[in-house]
Amino acid sequence: MLNFALVVATVLMGQTASSSTRYVCTTAEKYVCTMGVGCQAGVTGSWAIVDFATGEYQRCDAGGCDTYAATIFPSGQVINVEVPGKAAFIKVLPGGAFSEVASAGSMTIVSYGYCLPEQA
Predict the structure, then answer these.
(1) How confident is the model over 35-70, as pLDDT tens digits?
(2) DSSP H or E stretch at residue 60
(3) Would you say the pTM of this structure is higher than 0.85?
(4) List of residues 6+ apart from 3 with CB closer than 8 A
(5) Which residues touch 86 (CB under 8 Å, ≥6 apart)?
(6) What is the CATH number of the domain that holds 14?
(7) How many CB atoms lie within 10 A of CB 22?
(8) What pLDDT sits at residue 25?
(9) Which candidate, 31, 8, 15, 2, places its Cα nearest to that of 119?
(10) Which of 77, 73, 80 has its CA nearest to residue 12?
(11) Could you give the count of Cα atoms lying within 13 Å of 20 in the half-sphere of its Cβ?
(12) Among 7, 72, 74, 98, which residue's beta carbon has the most beta carbons within 10 A?
């Protein structure tokens, strides 16, 4: 799986070579969508950490991080990160831009931002 992680980090994400397999995805824009109201700007105080070597996905905010096993796979130039059973996924584009979609009840949360190698 480490070879896959290096391919993701260096080729598909368009980043320079890095020894890090963990990427921090920082939210720049967030929208909360509900039936009857539509989508409204939300607070961007959360981030995600994706570890391409271990297949872990972490959702973090000021209260800490929750860790989940993720399914990570390429589709063309896009890296898909799916969190089974949690109604959430991230798509990482070349260069590190990402979009994330999660649902909670009748609410859908859509976030956009950038993933960069975690700094040691």
Answers:
(1) 999 999 998 888 999 998 899 999 998 999 999 999
(2) strand 56-61
(3) no
(4) none
(5) 68, 102
(6) 2.40.128
(7) 19
(8) 94
(9) 15
(10) 77
(11) 14
(12) 98
What value, to the nearest 5°, has the Cα angle with vertex 28 and ends 25 and 31? Answer: 110
12, pLDDT greater than 70 = no
How far apart CA 25 and CA 78 sit, in angstroms, is 15
Tell me the two tokens of residue 71.
């399914």
At 38, which helix (H) or strand (E)? strand 38-41
How many domains, the chain? 1
Residue with structure tokens 């320079």?
16
CA distance 101 to 7: 24
Residues in the chain: 120
Structural domain of 87: 2-117
- DSSP tag of 76: T
CA atoms of 71 and 1, how far apart (whole Å): 12
